[in-house]
Write a structure and sequence with these properties.
The protein is α+β, with helices and mostly antiparallel strands. The protein contains two helices and three strands; from the N terminus they run βαββα.
């Protein structure tokens, strides 16, 4: 599972930050479909106090999930 760590003095979720990252991730993976099942991937940003958003990827199969997680990891690095 990928994660986004950020400066956060109050330990509360940052909806604006989550929206920005969701948009970036969505744009970068929207073109990909599983070659076996012909399905797109879904993801969710989950806030973990005090300063982390976990990127939970849901895919039709473990292989496709792994591919997408690697792509997100490369994009965020």
């Amino acid at each position: 599972m990928q994660k986004i760590v950020f400066q956060n003095s109050d330990g509360k979720p940052k909806p604006g930050l989550a929206k920005t990252y969701s948009s970036i991730i969505s744009t970068s993976i929207s073109e990909f479909k599983c070659s076996v099942h012909d399905k797109h991937v879904e993801f969710e940003l989950i806030f973990e106090s005090p300063n982390t958003y976990l990127i939970q990827v849901v895919a039709c199969c473990p292989e496709f999930k792994s591919i997408i997680e690697k792509k997100i990891g490369l994009m965020l690095s």
